[in-house]
Amino acid sequence: MNKSMLNDIFSMLLYIVPFSVSLVFWVAAVAGRLEYMQKKMKYSTLKQKTGTLKRMAKIRFTGKLPETFKMLNSRYMSRGSIQEAIWTSLEDMDKAVRKEMKKVYDTLNTNSMEEIDNTFNMIESFYRNEYLTLLLNLIRQAHYKGGSIVIKEQFEVSTEEILSEIERSKDLSATSRSYILLSLFMPVGLLGIEYFNRVALGNAADQFYASPMGIGIKIVFFVSLVLYIGYLLYLEKIT
Is 141 in contact with 108 (CB distance < 8 Å)? Predict the structure, then answer.
């Protein structure tokens, strides 16, 4: 092997080695990026599933509140101690409610005002439900003031009012949904009227529906319908 061939091989190596090193680093970077994206997608999927489970837990919990109010009210009236009322009710409570009421019971046993407030605030901030907030306030009062007649009466009256309010909210929600469902069929009625007019009136109806006025009426109708449905959805949400 002569000197010129050695020089050529050496020159080739000067190009090949840096290129190979760069290729290795590029492949490693791509692989790392793909692994990061895969982990991120898994984390995002897990986060979505966790969020869905939390929402389902909240819905299940709030749906069982009326039953919880009745149970605690009845046993508090008979036993005179809110802690005993909670303890004897735990086995009869729904699993979603039992978990939170067990926290409440354990916290009340500490008899620490600060810990009770922190635990109750944490539960309130998680569920953000006015009826749950009122229940926790009643439990707090019953714990600090004991089984006095005033507290018992307040607990009983509040329970009745809340149950009535929940039933009223359910009725309003059901009515709102029925109106929403009915309003979804209104465009079909509009199209039916338009078809009838075209058949009955012929070219006159075609000209009217193609005119600015005819188009404007359609736009106003659909915009009003969207606003109406949005308003019903808003009413359902706040009730």
Answer: no
